[in-house]
Amino acid sequence: MSTTDIEQESAPTPPPSMSSSRRRIGDSVFSSLSVGSGLLIFLTLAAVAIFLTTESMPAVIASQEFSGTADFSLVKYALPLVFGTVLASGIALLIAIPISIGIALFISHFAPRRLASGLGYMIDLLAAVPSVVYGLWGGIWLVPKLEPLYFFLNTYFGWIPLFAGEPHAPMRNLASASVVLAVMVLPIITAVTREVFLQTPRLQEEAALALGATRWETIRTVVLPFGRGGIVAASMLGLGRALGETMAVLMILAPGATFSLRILEVGQHNSIAANIASKSAEASGVDMSLLVFTGLVLFVLTFIINAIARWIVARSGPKS
Amino acid sequence: MSSMTSAPTEASVHRPHDERRLPWYHLIFTGLTGLLVAIAGLAIVDALSIASAIVVGFLLHLLFGWVYSLVREGPRWAMDRLVTLLVIGAFAVAMFPLLSLLWEVIRRGLTRVLAAKPSVLSFWTSDMSGIIGGADAGGVLHATVGTLLITLWASIISIPIGLFTAIFLVEYADQGWKKTLGTGVTFLVDVMTGIPSIVAGLFGLAVFITLMPDASVRMGIMGAVALSLLMIPTVVRNSEEMLRLVPMDLREASYALGVPKWLTIVKVVLRTAIAGLTTGITLAIARVIGETAPLLLTVGMVTSMNWNMFDGRMATLPTFINQQYRAGSANCMSDSVTNPITHEVYACSISTNIDRAWAAAFTLIVIVMVLNIVARLISHYFSPKLSR
Question: How does the UniProt record describe the way this protein sits in the membrane (chain B) (predicted)?
Answer without folding.
Answer: Multi-pass membrane protein
